[in-house]
Amino acid sequence: MGHGHHHHDHDHGQEQPGEGDVAAARDLSIPDGELSPGQLSRRRMFRRAGLLGAGLTAAGVLGTPQTAAAADGEFGRGREAKDGYLWLAGDHHIHTQYSSDGIYRVIDQVRHGNAYGLGWMVITDHGAATHAKIGVDKVNPDIVAARAAVKDTLVFQGLEWNIPAAEHGTVFVAPGSNEVATLKEFENSFDGSVKGAGSNTPQNEALAIAGLNFLAEAVRRRRVPDALFLANHPSRKGLDSPHEIRGWRDAQPSIAIGMEGAPGHQAAGIAKPNGPGGGRGYYDSNPGADSFAGYPAESYKTFGGFDWMTATVGGLWDSLLAEGKPWWITANSDAHWVHADTSDRGPGSDFTANGKYEDPVYKGVANFGSGDFWPGYYSRTHVGSQGFAYRAVMDGLRAGRIWVDHGGLISGLVVRARAAGTGQRGVTLGDALHVRQGARVELAIEITLAGRPNWAQVVPSLARVDVIQGDVTGPAADKDTFTTPNTKVVQSYEVNRNSGTVTFTYQLGPVDRPVYVRLRGTDGKRGAPGLLGAAVDPHGPAIDVYGDADPWNDLWFYSNPIWVLPRR
After folding, report:
1. Does residue 388 sit in the same domain as residue 424?
2. Helix axes of 136-149 and 106-115: crossing angle, nearest 10 degrees
3. d(CA 193, CA 204)
4. Which stretches make up the Polymerase/histidinol phosphatase N-terminal domain (predicted)?
5. How confident is the model at residue 36 (pLDDT cuts 50, 70, 90)?
6. Alpha carbon distances (Å) from 218 to 190, 215, 394
7. Are 414 and 438 in the same domain?
8. CB of 256 closer than 8 Å to CB of 326
9. Counting beta carbons within 10 angstroms of the beta carbon of residue 503, is it exposed (0 to 12), middle (13 to 18) or buried (19 or more)?
10. Which residues span the domain enclosing 368?
11. pLDDT in tens, 416-469
12. In-domain check, residue 321
């Protein structure tokens, strides 16, 4: 029996004719014997062309490689492929009138995201008793309608999980006949708010792992075509301890794939009276009873709009990457109520009874006390996808083909690690380059600069690009480790341009040990030595000032890593 139907169970937003066959042929989790004759023929063609091969495993760069699809082309929909992938901007953290603190219709968020250039979006209303009871069911027809109305943006259904013993996270599934039933069962069984499991006890930590296991089993049994989890605003309240993050990743590495490198609510730091005058990203908490005691005071703030875990070179994110295991970063809007919007909730709203607010109405007064931007307006997560399809985007996220930016700082990024001087294509973000011991390796970087105004009506100028390199040392003996000593900024390139394309080549030299490299770029308007010292990071992002943090004057981009692994 063919598997094309697993890729588009609805008639809205599905692939063009034949693309389901292409996706199934590329998906090596589907045995040859379960493909239709046409799908099997296409897979054989890919094999002959060398387009199906080994890739980075979910278990980590030090494990045994597994096969993974790697076919290029056939993107369609008028989108241009670059470096063999369709780079789709997206947002996996968006709220609607089905959230207790939301306001907008699904179609409002989708149309705005589409207008601001997003190719994919995830609707993630808050997990809670009311949402679990009726909201999951009620929002689905609106998502289905949005898929039909806006065909060139993929719209996933998900929810914002109250992670037992921890903070919030995005959970979403690929569209299918069981998407509602699966999400509903997941929320009723494993949501920390629904189950009263918020405190940081071992039992509640185990419940979070059980939730991830449930999602993995749902995919294994093909109840849903795919499912993913990412931790949201991980440092905001200090609830996501290092050992919990490692526990999620290690328990189900094909489901738990990363975290928000930058939170939403990026307008929240704009000074009064033009903004809320709070903490950028609403990072304004202090340690509580369930916070991880080891985190420093600085961890509760953002740095250049990015979470402390990501912004600190040699910090928690790097300590995870130094284990050689995938853990990716994203950037999202967390859009609830948009800065300077003139909408208000519809009259007569009763969220508790109806699981939603009435449709928004025009209020006539701009709300400068809101801290959010529309999806795609400021924060973007760019995913290298093998096609315009739900499963393809999820595969790109899982593979770590991701870079993120704020305020349209750059328009495009291509990064390749390759054997120096060979002309080989090498590997891209999220992947691992295997070389012989002592081989010379280079990192080729191509950046398409902004070239046009962002939504603040300014053309951003990229001032500097930093190459960050670290040693891969294997699993941490202490699961609560949140630093790694052998990661630092190894090269900086001055740019100071806002149009055209710039290229750089960083020479890693002879590689005699496993390493990883990642990129960071800035408009150069705010900077400070990193928290671990100027020798590690001489010009990193500065800590954001509470009540006076203009997001448009502090722009950064970050890439996910590439590993370089010498064979001994």
Report:
1. no
2. 40
3. 11
4. 90-165
5. confident
6. 14, 5, 16
7. yes
8. no
9. exposed
10. 86-399
11. 999 998 888 999 999 999 999 999 999 999 999 999 999 999 999 999 999 999
12. yes
